[in-house]
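batch_manifest entry 22 of 60
target: Pseudouridine synthase
source organism: Chiayiivirga flava
requested by: lab member K.T.
priority: normal
notes from requester: please return tokens only, no post-processing; we will run our own comparison against the previous entry in this batch. if the run fails, retry once and flag.
--- input ---
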Amino acid sequence: MAANGPKTPSTGVRLVRVDPERAGQRIDNFLLGQLKGAPRSLIYRILRTGEVRIDGRRAKPDTRLAGGEEVRIPPVRLEAPTDHGEPPSGPMERVAESIVYEDRALLALNKPSGIATHGGSGISFGVIELLRNLRPDQPLELVHRLDRDTSGLLVIAKKRSALTELQRLIREGLLEKRYLTLLVGALPQKKFSVNQPLLKSTLQGGERMVRVDPQGKASLSHFRLIEGAGAHSYTEVKIDTGRTHQIRVHSAFAGHPVAGDDKYGDKAANRVLKQAGLKRLFLHAASLKFALKDGEQEYVLNAPLPDELKNVLERLDKD
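--- output ---
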């Protein structure tokens, strides 16, 4: 039997005092920062078994820190970190060119489809790693995530205060997200909503799957038909919650999956759409609206639909 890769020495129990600037951060994300290189599966395992304690109390993965607590981190043994070297110049240039807005607090980019938000699961460099290589002196942190195949607006915080405020806005539903998508088939009505709980699971190979399930988390999506596109529907979606794969699962539940979705979609329809030039998931994060500094500084960020998706709509209209 082949030996496992080298391991780093196991550390003893650590007691870590939470910096006040970490207020609002989830404990699972805090642990990822403390245990560099630890896979999420390990983080969730030590949380699930009760080995992580906050001021002596058992922590759940979604427990949020207030700042000032004492966190007990159990001894863990990690794979020795892999040196991935410098990222290739091509993706770094694509990310640099995709920045659509920047100020002292944050930056926003129009993430290309095909680039992951962050590394992991066989991916060495995602957007955040590429940006950190481009700007090694800046403390950049992801505010939220987009699926690898989804294009559009992705916000990165440049200050801890901006990160915590944006995360609060997301929790309270005060960050307005608008997506553009092509749904398979003709919608029976111009507007409809899907209010169905979503449950996330991880398959043995690490692939994430989401399904409608009464045991899941509350999830609400609002769909509005913009125009017909051949036999399909060009649609705007606004989401009140930001669950993993939410739009993809809710649209499939409604009987009109996202075009080009190879996980939850219509395989026969996808084959036909491929002939119209659709080579990716037709889902784009088009706009974000929110306000920082207790509502004093308003942001309205926009990212135009990529040319490859515009071209698909034009071809469908001609058919």
